[in-house]
């Protein structure tokens, strides 16, 4: 809807592999914006856009794709200051922001302490925000919704009509029934979301405890404030591809190499671990086995 073949698109580096899988076949050029433990670095975004050279780099990007909360794969959450700086850059350089935010409801802080979404900061009509029920109801439902400026939403509907004959009616019916069920209860949905957050907070704490026990001196990581992922930087390894896809897999340790999340498939010394469904025992065993592999 927003890009054509040969266009430049801004994405976080690293970013969600599913988004990359959709972008690569479109023939666009991906420009990675550096990140750290706090997510996308706004100063890097400003620098990229301020110094863009049309003659050597092609058309200036019109679109930024970002996962500001509990990022997949890094687990990072943007602070309010970073969100405001990011939006300032988008406004100054006329970017459309695709705010992919399925982990918004999986923040481990009090609801009153959550940073505003980019949509909440939008004054120019340049943010398309994407939410999902798949993280808080059931992963198999894959039901989401988009919020944004009316002209973009109308165009999005037309694109949907031309690419999806019909969405899954059963999934929508299940979601609607659950929402009506919670609506009939006092704070029903809020209490459900609180229980989901409590579960993931416990999973996160268990994973970090095991990482501290087994990976000290072998890896570095930032403790996520939302979502279900930890981004592990493995010491002494420049490319984790063979380690994860061969040696770790042989030991029944399932993680994803960092190169899967790099915009241009660059080698990476990182791996993504997910603590969403593993038991405490399995998490501890997996990190123990990973540590053994890193010891060599």
What's the overall geometry? globular
Structural class: alpha/beta
CATH superfamily annotation of the largest domain: Type I PLP-dependent aspartate aminotransferase-like (Major domain)
Could you list the spans in which at least 5 consecutive residues all have pLDDT below 50?
A: none
Multimeric state: single chain
CATH class of the largest domain: Alpha Beta
Q: Looking at CATH, which topology of the largest domain would you report?
A: Aspartate Aminotransferase, domain 2
Query: Strand-and-helix sequence, N→C?
Result: EHEEHHEHEHEEHHHEEHEEH
Radius of gyration, whole Å? 20 Å
Q: Could you report the average pLDDT, rounded to the nearest whole number?
A: 95
**What's the β-strand tally?**
11
Walk me through this protein's architecture.
With 296 residues, the protein is of the alpha/beta class. It folds into two domains: 8-174, Type I PLP-dependent aspartate aminotransferase-like (Major domain) (Aspartate Aminotransferase, domain 2), CATH 3.40.640.10; 189-295, Alpha-Beta Complex (Aspartate Aminotransferase, domain 1). The protein has ten helices and eleven strands. It has helices at residues 17-23, 42-50, 54-57, 80-93, 118-121, 150-163, 169-183, 188-214, 241-250, 280-295, and strands at residues 8-13, 29-36, 39-40, 63-66, 96-100, 127-132, 144-147, 219-220, 229-234, 256-257, 270-274. A seven-stranded mixed β-sheet has the order 3-2-1-4-5-6-7, sandwiched between helices. It has a four-stranded antiparallel β-sheet with strand order 8-9-11-10, with helices on one face. Helix 5 (118-121) links the parallel strand 5 and strand 6. Helix 2 (42-50) runs parallel beside helix 4 (80-93). It is globular, with a radius of gyration of 20 Å. The protein starts with 7 loop residues before the first strand and ends with a helix.
């Amino acid at each position: 809807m927003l890009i054509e073949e040969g266009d430049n698109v801004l994405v976080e580096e690293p970013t969600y592999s599913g988004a990359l899988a959709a972008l690569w076949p479109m023939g666009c050029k991906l420009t990675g914006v550096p990140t750290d433990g706090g997510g996308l670095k706004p100063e890097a975004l400003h620098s990229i856009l301020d110094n863009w050279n049309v003659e050597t780099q092609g058309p200036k990007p019109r679109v930024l794709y970002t996962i500001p909360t509990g990022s997949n794969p890094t687990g990072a959450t943007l602070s309010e200051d970073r969100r405001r700086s990011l939006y300032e850059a988008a406004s100054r350089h006329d970017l459309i922001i695709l705010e992919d935010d399925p982990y918004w409801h999986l923040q481990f802080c009090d609801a009153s302490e959550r940073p505003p979404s980019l949509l909440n900061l939008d004054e120019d009509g340049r943010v398309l925000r994407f939410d999902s029920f798949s993280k808080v109801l059931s992963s198999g439902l894959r039901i989401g919704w988009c919020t944004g400026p009316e002209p973009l939403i109308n165009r999005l509907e037309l694109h949907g009509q031309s690419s999806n004959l019909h969405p899954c009616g059963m999934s929508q019916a299940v979601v609607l029934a659950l929402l009506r069920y919670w609506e009939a209860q006092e704070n029903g949905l809020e209490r459900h979301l609180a229980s989901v957050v409590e579960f993931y907070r416990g999973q996160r704490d268990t994973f970090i405890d095991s990482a501290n026990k087994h990976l000290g001196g072998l890896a570095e990581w930032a403790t996520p404030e939302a979502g279900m992922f930890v981004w592990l930087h493995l010491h002494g390894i420049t490319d984790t591809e063979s380690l994860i896809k061969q040696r770790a897999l042989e030991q029944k340790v399932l993680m994803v190499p960092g190169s899967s999340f790099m915009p241009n498939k660059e080698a990476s010394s990182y791996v993504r671990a997910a603590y969403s469904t593993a038991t405490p025992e399995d998490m501890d065993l997996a990190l123990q086995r990973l540590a053994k592999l890193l010891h060599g």
